[in-house]
Amino acid sequence: MKLTRPAPRRSEGRPVTRFRRRRLAVAGLILAVTAIAVPTGATAHGSHNDPTADARRNVVGGAARNVILLIGDGMGDSEITIARNYQVGANGRLAMDSLPMTGAYTTYAVQKDDPTKPDYVTDSAASGTGWSTGHKTYNGAVSVLPDGTTAVPTSLELAKRAGYRTGDVTTAEIEDATPAVQTAHVAERSCYGPDDMADCPAQDVRNGGPGSIAEQQAALQPDLLLGGGSAAYQQVIKGGRYAGMTVRQKAESLGTEVLTTAGELKSARGHRPILGLFAPGNLDLEWTGPTPTEQGTQPARCAINTARNSDQPHLAEMTTKAISILDARSRHSRRGFFLQVEGASIDKQDHAANPCGQIGETIAFDAAVRSALDYQRTHRDTLVVVTADHGHTSQIVETGTTTAGVTATLTTNEGADLTISYATTEYPGSQQHTGTQVRIAAGGPQAASVLGVTDQTDLFFTVRRALSLH
Ligand SMILES: [Zn+2]
Q1: Is 127 a catalytic residue?
Q2: Which of 13, 170, 270, 434 is most solvent-facing, going by the fewest CB within 10 Å?
Q3: Alpha helices in 245-309 (DSSP H)
Q4: Taking each helix axis from N to C terminus, what angle separates 315-330 and 355-378, rounded to the nearest 10 degrees?
Q5: How far apart are the CA of 54 and the centre of ligand 1, in A?
Q6: 431 C-alpha to ligand 1 centroid (Å)
């Protein structure tokens, strides 16, 4: 079984002295400044190499040509720290750690029965509605107000209407809450396909509504929708002008190209809207490892998930391809693109108390962040935002101890033992989200909007301002 240990780092085996740490910090700073100062070469937009001007653009704002919004689902500070410790070491830094502007934002939802009161622990639907529409709503609601019927426009929809190219990428089912909040409006997140409409009578096509999440996505036709979730697209539409067709057939009849493998994605030209459905449900996990127990575990290593279906693209592959297609499609336009990317199974493996599953997804998400930052290096007028939708369960506890929940101990790449606890529910049972504020980091035009403590809904206005949307 192939281990995930990377090539040895130069610092391995050497104690990090105070002086060295300082030198590393200075080197990091120089690196960060260099990243800002790298000349943009032959790019058409924002070409200059004045670091002061670039720093000022981060602070003062200005228009962005493109926005790339990357969401680590359930990726609170604990999840970031656990992944960093395991992969690059306590003193290492992930790609997401390199963004120049960092703040925190609050994530609460509102109560369905009394929207004047907060629901302190949000789910992905309510939180995603916050940043995609600027409105608070109840847990389960997908870009509708707390009345369950009033649809409010999303940043992706507004961008599309304004002439930007748009994309929505996830490792989950494409109908799952986080991708859905940009591309659909339903009363309950479970309304994936035509067969799943019991909780969404107002949106049901048989009642004159816009249909399930998948039906609405097919009608919206962003340039790219990439993820899992082919099952709901096989369901047959029950009413309206597409009655009798599957949702996939509806999408194809409107001119969308459907892809089902990583190979097809690789060779896709992107001349038509692309719907990439790479699994019936969620995409497979990147890593596997020990199952935590009430008594803890012996120190163990994570391993690559060799059972992963190789026809499924990795998140970074999908992100790189999406950026390349959106960039090409907008090249001759006054408007650039808006892209949302979600690392979904950080959350799902936190629910499942699976530390290596969770870390592997966080590292895969970080690779997607690196892809976005690589693009930004030559396209300085791109706003990159990296954040989460809510906090989650996993905690770093004293090495080798047990808790009221379950723990597992992992030996990290730097050779130390890391004990992780899951204790927000009776085991076994799905671990819960938590109500903590989470990190939001950004670089590029309007990036300073994330500084300090803001709310999730403020992110909608940041994107709207950056792209001059109305
Ligand atoms: Zn969750």
Answers
A1: no
A2: 13
A3: 247-253, 262-267
A4: 20
A5: 37
A6: 9
Pairing of strands 395-397, 417-422: antiparallel
| Beta partners for residue 195, in sequence order | none
153 within 8 A of 194, measured Cβ to Cβ: no
Q: Could you tell me which CATH number the domain at 62-466 has?
A: 3.40.720.10
Whole-number Å distance, alpha carbon 278 to ligand 1 midpoint, is 21
pLDDT for 60 equals 64
Percentage of the chain beyond pLDDT 70 is: 87
Two tokens at 363?
């590292």
296 Cβ neighbours under 8 A, 6+ residues apart: 400, 401, 402, 407, 408, 409, 419
Average pLDDT over residues 266-282: 97
| Per-residue pLDDT reduced to its tens digit, 250-273 | 999 999 999 999 999 999 999 999
Instruction: List the catalytic residue out of 78, 124, 127, 449.
Output: 124
Structure tokens belonging to residue 73? 């689902």
What separation in Å is there between the alpha carbon of 254 and the centre of ligand 1? 33
61-93 tens-digit pLDDT: 689 999 999 999 999 999 999 999 999 999 999
